[in-house]
Amino acid sequence: MLVDPEHRVGSLQGLRVRNRALVVSVLRRRGTASRAEIARATGLSRSTVSTLVGELQDDGLVVEHEAAAPRGGTGRPPVLLALDPSAGVALGLDFGHRHLRVAVADLSSRVLAERRVELDVDHSATASLDAAAELADDVLEEAGIGRDRVVGAGMGLPGPVHRGTGLVGSSVILPGWAGLHAQDELSERLGMPVEVDNDANLGALAELRHGAARGEADVVYVKVASGIGAGIVLGGRLHQGVSGVAGELGHVEVVPEGGEVCRCGKRGCLETVAAGASLLGLLRSTHGDDLDLPGLVRLAREGDLSTNRVVGDAGRAIGRVLADLCNHLNPSLVVIGGELAAAGDALVDGVREAIGRHALAAAADVVRVEPATLGERAELLGALALVITGSDHLAASTSAGAGRTVPRLHP
Fold first, then answer.
1. Are the CB atoms for 358 and 320 separated by under 8 Å?
2. Which of 134, 199, 257, 407 has the maximal Cβ count within 10 Å?
3. pLDDT mean over 314-331
4. What are phi and psi of 184, to 5 degrees?
């Protein structure tokens, strides 16, 4: 069979592009790696890796430095490769139910500019996506960076997202987004590749990369705010489920008879007793109708007795659901994040107490319950990490090791 020479050249060029992407992906995941380590990770020959690395160095994308010599060792230490942090930037976009955050960071995860606006994300996908594109332009302008230097954008949404297609899968959690291919819509507006995932998954990714869960492989990250959701990491990998609904803890039934009606249409869901709106409803009769979540958090931190009682009860309700999850998944760590996590010890202590009381001893004895360390920015930093390092092979990239680059998270 005759092969068209132009087709053959095009195929070879496509293969080279894909192989370059493999090398870059290894460096994004690991931070640093030798040429031999890249060859083993990609399955490419050492000669091919050396050629590709040379091209990437010529393009200014990869730099090299010598690793520290092993103690008592002999011979020259291996040369380690890393992506040049100045070679490009990533955009991160965190859509909450009532806010939008956008940031730009270099490839070492150093945030260069960041903006936040109040926004009703739930009911108008078009308006929210348009606002995101405008805010992306604002942060790029503030950082003095053109769109041509952006390698991609990561996007977090407060609802189930099919990871393979970017399809938003719930008409009750995000009514204005159901059936929308969110990553395609945002990619069209930004003119760049976009990856999308559930916000709690991105919070888990951020805490695993940079925060309370570093070095762990089996983790449940719980975001407690206006809704309640979890990002689940098993064996070092995010577990999203077939249709993206894994971790929707807020819609587990906890009041079997006569509970409040939830936004999902069921009665007695965890959100109706432990999420922000429920807690505010309990406290406004004594603290005023203007009380909002930041005010509730402030009262709790100031030691207001009724507020801490309500927050503690919420923690115990969440912990009761997590106790069953611990029995099923047997994680080593539960991280409590989201806006309400800033309320202080009451929430985390309530979760810890309920898990200790209701989980099997074999599960409760090995799981730690800790507050998140990245605060409300966890989901945004996770969106950046989705671009910079990807969501695969989390355990390998979070394990401590010689020569690993420690990301910088603040401007």
1. yes
2. 199
3. 97
4. -70, -40
